[in-house]
Amino acid sequence: MHIRPEQAGDSHPIAELTRRAFARAKHSDGTEQDIIDRLRKRGKLTCSLVACLGTEIIGHIAFSPVCIIGAHNQHPQWYGLGPVSVIPAQQRRGIGKTLITQGLATLEKTGTAGGCVVLGDPGYYQQFGFMPSPNLTYPHAPAQYFMVRSFDSNIPAGIVRYDAAFDT
Ligand SMILES: CC(C)(COP(=O)(O)OP(=O)(O)OC[C@H]1O[C@@H](n2cnc3c(N)ncnc32)[C@H](O)[C@@H]1OP(=O)(O)O)[C@@H](O)C(=O)NCCC(=O)NCCS
């Protein structure tokens, strides 16, 4: 298995694997593949990595910029993690963990990213350093499911808004 950035021709396999992965997921409305397509069209797919087994794409992760409403000071750009998917037959083999770890490292290495937020299962995401913050919040989900990870130990205060590609 190797990880590489998305390239031309990957959009259909990414959509298909995302649809299959989320078909069995709780809290899914089945539109995650459409979000990725809209992010790509809007030029907001800042980091898009695929996991490949030979030539087959078996996993994918997307990161896109988020706005922080109400933040008073200038702050570096923050990003939202997701959607992230691994095809059902290859789940629980560490592929999701590798995609998340490499994606976060890619963002951090740009030197311009302040941090990353995620909406998901705390039991899974805390291993990557994500935790809820009283300062940086997302009002559309229970607080324990919205977590932040700063790259520079600063967490701006405000309310997170995902890109319009996430609007249904
Ligand atoms: C979420 C997803 C990307 C993870 O990918 P993956 O390759 O299966 O995950 P990994 O193999 O890296 O990690 C799985 C490990 O995390 C652990 N884990 C998973 N969810 C957990 C949780 N809620 N609490 C604690 N541990 C958890 C599992 O125990 C597993 O370890 P084990 O095999 O030793 O038991 C994948 O399951 C998926 O595509 N799910 C459907 C789509 C989805 O829900 N995406 C995330 C939306 S936020």
UniProtKB/TrEMBL annotation:
<dbReference type="InterPro" id="IPR016181">
    <property type="entry name" value="Acyl_CoA_acyltransferase"/>
</dbReference>
<dbReference type="GO" id="GO:0016747">
    <property type="term" value="F:acyltransferase activity, transferring groups other than amino-acyl groups"/>
</dbReference>
<dbReference type="Pfam" id="PF13527">
    <property type="entry name" value="Acetyltransf_9"/>
</dbReference>
<protein>
    <recommendedName>
        <fullName>N-acetyltransferase domain-containing protein</fullName>
    </recommendedName>
</protein>
<dbReference type="InterPro" id="IPR000182">
    <property type="entry name" value="GNAT_dom"/>
</dbReference>
<feature type="domain" description="N-acetyltransferase">
    <location>
        <begin position="1"/>
        <end position="152"/>
    </location>
</feature>
